Amino acid sequence: MKVLIRAPQLTDIPAIVRLISELASTAGETSPITADYVARYLTAPSSRVLLAEVDEDVVGVLSYSIRPDLYHAGDCCLIEELIVNHKWRSRGVGRALMAELRLRLAGCKEVSVGVAAQNTAALKFYRRQGLVEEAVLLEKHL
């Protein structure tokens, strides 16, 4: 199996919507994601997306943002979503996305991700990628 990691094209918008919706349904939720929102997201200057493709099928997405950080006096990366289609998990797709992300973070001072405390599989995955627990993320949905 060959995993191709690439930047998205406008024709990939339905696949991105599908993967985000799959993530939400796994958590028993529904995402308000739309094709129009994805199109706007893809053109936002600080937002970036990587896609994982196997046999011309998009099976994974990693969205992240790069932002300046005062404390670190440099750019930092926030992983927003990393989603691998359930049929492709534990087959190297997430690792391939993270490896490509690391190549793109030259000059960044830090990479971080928020993970639900009960998502033990994601916590284990990120720990294997070298991320460690350093902070608590608090949030309030508006």
Topology record:
Layout: E1 4-6, H1 13-26, H2 35-43, E2 47-54, E3 57-69, E4 74-84, H3 93-103, E5 110-113, H4 120-128
In brief:
The protein is α+β, with helices and mostly antiparallel strands. A five-stranded mixed beta sheet has the order 1-2-3-4-5, with helices on both faces. The protein is built from four helices and five strands, in the order βααβββαβα.
Textual characterization of the structure:
By secondary structure, the chain is an alpha+beta fold. The chain has one domain: Gcn5-related N-acetyltransferase (GNAT) (Aminopeptidase). The protein is 30% helix and 27% strand. It has helices at 13-26, 35-43, 93-103, 120-128, and strands spanning 4-6, 47-54, 57-69, 74-84, 110-113. Strands 1-2-3-4-5 form a five-stranded mixed beta sheet, with helices on both faces. The radius of gyration is 15 Å and the shape is globular. The model has no long low-confidence stretch (mean pLDDT 93).
CATH architecture: 3-Layer(aba) Sandwich
Largest pleated sheet: 5 strands, mixed
CATH class descriptor name: Alpha Beta
Return the structural class: alpha+beta
Question: Main attributes?
Answer:
single chain, Aminopeptidase, 5-stranded mixed β-sheet
